[in-house]
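for ur thesis appendix - HAD-superfamily hydrolase, subfamily IIB. copy paste whatever u need, i formatted it the way the template wanted (i think)
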Amino acid sequence: MTTESCPPTREELLRGLAERGMRITFVTGRMFRSAMRFADRVPLGAPVVAYNGAMIVDQMGITWYHDPIPADTSLEVLRFFKSLGVYVQAYRDEELLVEEASSTRARYYTELSGVSPLEMGEALFDEPFASTKILAVEEDSSRLGRIIKEAASRFPDLEFYTSKGHFLEVMRRGVNKGSSLEMLCLLLGLQPQEVLVMGDGDNDRHMLSRFPTSVAVASASKGAKEAARFHVPEGIDPVSWIADNLLFPHDRCPLEVP
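the 3d part is after this line
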Protein backbone atom coordinates (compact mmCIF):
# COMPACT_ATOMS: atom_id res chain seq x y z
CA MET A 1 0.00 0.00 0.00
CA THR A 2 1.41 3.41 -0.92
CA THR A 3 0.89 6.94 0.30
CA GLU A 4 -1.40 7.53 -2.71
CA SER A 5 -4.03 4.96 -1.68
CA CYS A 6 -3.84 5.37 2.10
CA PRO A 7 -1.98 8.28 3.68
CA PRO A 8 0.43 7.08 6.38
CA THR A 9 -0.02 8.15 9.97
CA ARG A 10 2.41 10.63 11.47
CA GLU A 11 4.07 7.82 13.43
CA GLU A 12 4.56 5.84 10.22
CA LEU A 13 6.04 8.88 8.50
CA LEU A 14 8.49 9.41 11.33
CA ARG A 15 9.51 5.76 11.33
CA GLY A 16 10.10 6.01 7.58
CA LEU A 17 12.33 9.05 8.06
CA ALA A 18 14.30 7.27 10.78
CA GLU A 19 14.76 4.25 8.50
CA ARG A 20 16.29 6.61 5.93
CA GLY A 21 18.95 7.54 8.47
CA MET A 22 17.45 10.74 9.89
CA ARG A 23 17.92 11.37 13.61
CA ILE A 24 14.72 12.59 15.23
CA THR A 25 14.37 14.17 18.65
CA PHE A 26 12.23 16.47 20.77
CA VAL A 27 13.11 20.10 21.48
CA THR A 28 10.45 20.97 24.01
CA GLY A 29 9.38 23.03 26.95
CA ARG A 30 8.27 19.86 28.69
CA MET A 31 10.12 18.04 31.43
CA PHE A 32 12.26 15.21 30.12
CA ARG A 33 10.05 12.52 31.62
CA SER A 34 6.95 14.19 30.24
CA ALA A 35 8.46 14.24 26.75
CA MET A 36 9.47 10.60 27.04
CA ARG A 37 5.82 9.60 27.33
CA PHE A 38 5.79 9.93 23.52
CA ALA A 39 9.02 8.05 22.91
CA ASP A 40 7.17 4.89 21.88
CA ARG A 41 5.52 6.87 19.06
CA VAL A 42 8.64 8.64 17.79
CA PRO A 43 11.91 6.82 16.93
CA LEU A 44 14.30 9.05 18.86
CA GLY A 45 17.83 9.13 17.49
CA ALA A 46 19.40 11.90 19.57
CA PRO A 47 19.22 13.32 23.11
CA VAL A 48 16.16 15.37 24.05
CA VAL A 49 16.35 19.12 24.57
CA ALA A 50 13.91 19.69 27.45
CA TYR A 51 12.71 22.56 29.64
CA ASN A 52 12.99 25.06 26.75
CA GLY A 53 16.69 24.33 26.49
CA ALA A 54 17.66 24.30 30.16
CA MET A 55 18.43 20.59 30.01
CA ILE A 56 19.69 18.06 27.46
CA VAL A 57 19.15 14.40 28.39
CA ASP A 58 19.72 11.22 26.41
CA GLN A 59 17.41 8.21 26.27
CA MET A 60 19.33 6.51 29.06
CA GLY A 61 18.47 9.41 31.35
CA ILE A 62 22.02 10.77 31.38
CA THR A 63 22.16 14.55 31.58
CA TRP A 64 24.44 16.17 29.00
CA TYR A 65 23.69 19.75 30.02
CA HIS A 66 21.75 21.54 32.75
CA ASP A 67 21.54 25.29 33.36
CA PRO A 68 18.90 26.03 36.03
CA ILE A 69 17.87 29.33 37.54
CA PRO A 70 20.06 29.93 40.63
CA ALA A 71 18.47 29.13 43.98
CA ASP A 72 18.19 32.68 45.36
CA THR A 73 16.78 33.99 42.08
CA SER A 74 14.30 31.10 41.83
CA LEU A 75 12.99 31.94 45.29
CA GLU A 76 12.59 35.62 44.40
CA VAL A 77 10.71 34.77 41.20
CA LEU A 78 8.38 32.35 42.94
CA ARG A 79 7.60 34.93 45.61
CA PHE A 80 7.08 37.59 42.91
CA PHE A 81 4.35 35.57 41.20
CA LYS A 82 2.76 34.61 44.51
CA SER A 83 2.58 38.30 45.52
CA LEU A 84 0.59 38.95 42.33
CA GLY A 85 -1.78 36.07 42.98
CA VAL A 86 -0.49 34.23 39.88
CA TYR A 87 -0.27 30.44 39.81
CA VAL A 88 3.36 29.34 39.62
CA GLN A 89 5.25 26.04 39.65
CA ALA A 90 8.90 24.99 39.73
CA TYR A 91 11.04 22.03 38.67
CA ARG A 92 13.81 20.28 40.60
CA ASP A 93 15.47 16.93 39.86
CA GLU A 94 12.75 16.01 37.33
CA GLU A 95 10.05 16.71 39.94
CA LEU A 96 7.15 19.09 39.34
CA LEU A 97 6.77 21.27 42.44
CA VAL A 98 3.49 23.05 43.23
CA GLU A 99 2.00 24.78 46.23
CA GLU A 100 -1.29 22.84 46.16
CA ALA A 101 -1.67 19.71 44.03
CA SER A 102 -5.47 19.87 44.12
CA SER A 103 -5.66 23.36 42.59
CA THR A 104 -7.37 23.66 39.22
CA ARG A 105 -4.23 24.76 37.39
CA ALA A 106 -2.02 22.12 38.98
CA ARG A 107 -4.52 19.43 37.98
CA TYR A 108 -4.70 20.86 34.45
CA TYR A 109 -0.93 20.77 34.08
CA THR A 110 -0.80 17.25 35.51
CA GLU A 111 -3.23 16.09 32.85
CA LEU A 112 -1.30 17.92 30.14
CA SER A 113 2.13 16.65 31.15
CA GLY A 114 1.30 13.23 32.58
CA VAL A 115 3.47 14.05 35.60
CA SER A 116 2.05 14.00 39.11
CA PRO A 117 3.18 17.04 41.12
CA LEU A 118 4.90 17.14 44.46
CA GLU A 119 2.88 19.36 46.82
CA MET A 120 5.17 21.75 48.68
CA GLY A 121 2.75 24.09 50.43
CA GLU A 122 4.34 27.28 51.71
CA ALA A 123 7.76 25.62 51.52
CA LEU A 124 7.69 26.35 47.77
CA PHE A 125 8.20 30.02 48.70
CA ASP A 126 10.45 29.54 51.72
CA GLU A 127 13.23 27.11 50.77
CA PRO A 128 15.76 28.25 48.13
CA PHE A 129 16.56 25.73 45.41
CA ALA A 130 17.75 25.93 41.83
CA SER A 131 14.72 25.47 39.56
CA THR A 132 15.38 24.15 36.05
CA LYS A 133 12.73 26.57 34.85
CA ILE A 134 9.71 28.29 36.38
CA LEU A 135 6.24 28.30 34.86
CA ALA A 136 3.48 30.78 35.66
CA VAL A 137 -0.06 30.67 34.27
CA GLU A 138 -2.24 33.69 33.49
CA GLU A 139 -5.26 33.45 31.15
CA ASP A 140 -5.80 37.23 30.91
CA SER A 141 -3.54 38.15 27.97
CA SER A 142 -3.45 41.87 28.79
CA ARG A 143 -2.48 41.17 32.40
CA LEU A 144 0.08 38.62 31.21
CA GLY A 145 1.69 41.32 29.08
CA ARG A 146 1.93 43.65 32.06
CA ILE A 147 3.39 40.90 34.23
CA ILE A 148 6.05 40.11 31.63
CA LYS A 149 7.05 43.77 31.43
CA GLU A 150 7.31 44.08 35.22
CA ALA A 151 9.15 40.76 35.60
CA ALA A 152 11.65 41.58 32.85
CA SER A 153 12.45 44.88 34.56
CA ARG A 154 12.81 43.26 37.97
CA PHE A 155 14.83 40.24 36.82
CA PRO A 156 17.23 41.36 34.06
CA ASP A 157 19.20 38.10 34.23
CA LEU A 158 16.17 36.06 33.19
CA GLU A 159 14.16 35.63 30.01
CA PHE A 160 10.41 35.22 29.70
CA TYR A 161 8.67 33.30 26.90
CA THR A 162 5.00 32.59 26.32
CA SER A 163 3.60 29.26 25.19
CA LYS A 164 0.08 27.97 24.66
CA GLY A 165 -1.10 31.58 24.94
CA HIS A 166 -1.28 31.61 28.75
CA PHE A 167 1.91 29.93 29.96
CA LEU A 168 4.81 32.16 30.98
CA GLU A 169 8.13 30.28 30.86
CA VAL A 170 10.98 31.71 32.94
CA MET A 171 14.57 30.80 32.07
CA ARG A 172 18.09 32.05 32.67
CA ARG A 173 19.05 34.69 30.13
CA GLY A 174 20.62 33.07 27.08
CA VAL A 175 19.00 29.70 27.77
CA ASN A 176 16.57 28.77 25.02
CA LYS A 177 15.75 26.01 22.56
CA GLY A 178 17.93 27.53 19.85
CA SER A 179 21.13 27.84 21.85
CA SER A 180 20.78 24.36 23.37
CA LEU A 181 20.03 22.74 20.02
CA GLU A 182 23.13 24.43 18.61
CA MET A 183 25.11 22.95 21.50
CA LEU A 184 23.65 19.50 20.86
CA CYS A 185 24.53 19.75 17.17
CA LEU A 186 28.10 20.65 18.09
CA LEU A 187 28.32 17.64 20.41
CA LEU A 188 26.94 15.38 17.67
CA GLY A 189 29.14 16.86 14.94
CA LEU A 190 26.24 18.29 12.94
CA GLN A 191 26.19 21.53 10.95
CA PRO A 192 23.13 23.83 11.13
CA GLN A 193 22.36 23.19 7.45
CA GLU A 194 22.03 19.47 8.25
CA VAL A 195 19.22 20.11 10.71
CA LEU A 196 15.50 20.69 10.15
CA VAL A 197 13.47 22.21 13.00
CA MET A 198 9.72 22.57 13.43
CA GLY A 199 7.86 24.63 16.00
CA ASP A 200 4.62 26.38 16.87
CA GLY A 201 5.13 28.72 19.85
CA ASP A 202 6.89 31.92 20.81
CA ASN A 203 9.32 29.81 22.85
CA ASP A 204 10.43 28.29 19.51
CA ARG A 205 11.49 31.64 18.00
CA HIS A 206 15.19 31.35 18.82
CA MET A 207 15.38 27.86 17.37
CA LEU A 208 13.40 28.72 14.22
CA SER A 209 15.52 31.79 13.53
CA ARG A 210 18.92 30.08 14.04
CA PHE A 211 18.50 27.14 11.66
CA PRO A 212 18.15 27.70 7.91
CA THR A 213 15.58 24.93 7.42
CA SER A 214 12.93 25.96 9.92
CA VAL A 215 9.23 25.23 9.69
CA ALA A 216 6.24 26.73 11.48
CA VAL A 217 3.09 24.62 11.61
CA ALA A 218 -0.23 26.07 10.44
CA SER A 219 -1.41 26.81 13.99
CA ALA A 220 1.87 28.46 15.05
CA SER A 221 1.98 31.77 16.89
CA LYS A 222 2.75 34.99 15.06
CA GLY A 223 6.26 35.06 16.54
CA ALA A 224 6.99 31.51 15.42
CA LYS A 225 5.78 32.20 11.89
CA GLU A 226 7.88 35.35 11.66
CA ALA A 227 10.99 33.41 12.73
CA ALA A 228 10.47 30.38 10.48
CA ARG A 229 11.54 30.18 6.84
CA PHE A 230 8.76 27.79 5.80
CA HIS A 231 5.08 27.59 6.78
CA VAL A 232 2.87 24.49 6.64
CA PRO A 233 -0.49 25.22 4.98
CA GLU A 234 -3.75 24.70 6.87
CA GLY A 235 -5.20 21.22 6.88
CA ILE A 236 -1.97 19.35 6.06
CA ASP A 237 -0.01 17.13 8.43
CA PRO A 238 3.29 18.97 9.02
CA VAL A 239 5.48 15.85 8.87
CA SER A 240 3.90 14.82 5.58
CA TRP A 241 4.35 18.34 4.18
CA ILE A 242 7.99 18.44 5.25
CA ALA A 243 8.70 15.06 3.66
CA ASP A 244 7.02 16.02 0.38
CA ASN A 245 8.33 19.57 0.08
CA LEU A 246 11.66 19.77 1.88
CA LEU A 247 13.16 16.32 2.30
CA PHE A 248 12.08 14.46 -0.82
CA PRO A 249 10.56 17.04 -3.18
CA HIS A 250 11.44 15.02 -6.30
CA ASP A 251 10.07 11.68 -5.05
CA ARG A 252 6.48 10.99 -5.88
CA CYS A 253 6.02 8.52 -3.00
CA PRO A 254 9.02 8.93 -0.69
CA LEU A 255 7.73 6.75 2.12
CA GLU A 256 6.15 3.36 1.56
CA VAL A 257 3.68 2.03 4.12
CA PRO A 258 3.46 -1.79 4.39
